[in-house]
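retry 2 of 3: previous attempt timed out while embedding zinc ion. Reduced batch size to 1 and resubmitted. Inputs unchanged:
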Amino acid sequence: MYSSLQGRYREHIISNNFTENILLKPVKMKDISQSEEGWAKRNGAKPSGPSSKFYSVPTKVPVPKREKSAQTKGQNTSSNHPMNLKQSNPVTEKTKQHLLKADQSTSTVPDNVELDKQLCTLWKKKDTEVVVSVIPSQHRGNNFVIHHSELRSLRPHQWLTGEIIESILHHTANVLNLGSTVYVMNHYTTGVILFGNREEIQRQSLSKVNFDKYHAVVSFVNIGNVHWKFLYINAADSCVYLVDPARSSTEQQDSDLAAKRFRDYFKMRRTCHNKTDWVDLKLKGGVIQHPVQRDGSSCGVIVILMAKAVMNAYPDKPVMAFQTDTAEIAKKRETLAKEVLEASVFDMDNNCALCAMAKPPLPGPSITDWIQCDDCGRWFHAQCLQMDDAELAHVSKEYWKCSLCI
Ligand SMILES: [Zn+2]
Ligand SMILES: [Zn+2]
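retry 2 succeeded.
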C-alpha cells in the first residue's frame, strides 16, 4: 500500500514495463482562459475576462437567410428557442458587427451594385474550395453546396460543372413552384439510364420516387466529358426529347434511343423493385426547335436556358427563342452566376465556409476551434483548414485572411 499517489503511479509504471522517463516528461498545461471559455460555451454562459476569437463562435441554430430576415422583420430576433443562445453567447465585437451587417443585408433586397461587385471579386480570384452559395434542392432537406471554383465555371468560355447546372434547375423548379409536377432528375442517373450497363442501371432504381406523382422530367447528360445535352420527358404526350445544344442531324434518332432506354428503365424498376409508375407510358422520341450553340464551351449555359424555357412554359409546349451569340451568352452567364449567389441560403455566421456545416465532418472533440477571416468575416473550422493548435494560436495574433481573401 502506498501513502502517496506518486507511489502508486510508480508501481503502475514498473508493472507495465513503461519507461520511468514518462514521470519526468513535463505535462503541457492547457491555456486556462481557453478551457474556461470551452466550458462557458458548453454551458452557454459568458466567460470571465477577455475572450479569444476562436472560442467566440456563435452557437445559435443555423437558419436559412430568408427565415432569418422574416424573424428580423417581426422584431423577434431573440426568439424563445432553447438553442438560441445568441444573447448569452460570448460574442466578440467583430462578430457582433458582422451579425449586425448580415442582418441588415438580409432584411433588404440585395443591391444589384453590391452583387456586381461580389461577383467581380469572386471571378477574379483563383479557384478555391470556399463555399459561395448553398441552394435548396427540389427535395426538402437536400442542398447543393456551390464552391467558388464551381461558380467560376460560369465565366465566359468555361465549361459548366454539373453541380452548377443542376442547382440552377432545382432553383428554377422551386421558384416556379413546379416541385410536384416537374421532376429534376440527377444528371448522373440520367447518364446511367442512357448509356450505362444493366448492373449500373439497376443501382439507379430511384426506389423512393413515384413518377406517377409527376407530369414531366427535366434533366441533362454528360457526353464524353466534353459536352452537355438537355433531356426532357413529357408524360402527357409520352415524348422523350434528347436535345443537343450544338447543331445535330441525329436528334430524332438520339431521342428515339433515349425513349427506348427510359422504357426499359421503367420496366427494370417493375421487375426488380415492384414499381409500376410510368411503366405503361409508351415513350417515343421527339424533337424541339431550338437555337444552336456557336462556341465550344457554352453547351451547359444553353442546357440551362432550354430547361428554363421548358419550365417557364409548362404545361404548354416550350418556345426556345434565346440568343446564342458570344455577347448574349456572356450576359447570360453573368445573370446565372448572380442567380446562384442570390438564391443562396448559406448561413455564413453559423457554418464553416469549407464544409458548409456547423460541426466539422471529421471526428474530433465536441468543442470545435473556429477562426474568422478578418477580411470577409467567413468562419472556418480549424479542423477543415488543417490548422493545429500552434498554428491557430500563431495566426490569432495576426490579421488572418482566408484563401479567398489572400
Ligand atoms: Zn468545416
Ligand atoms: Zn475571407
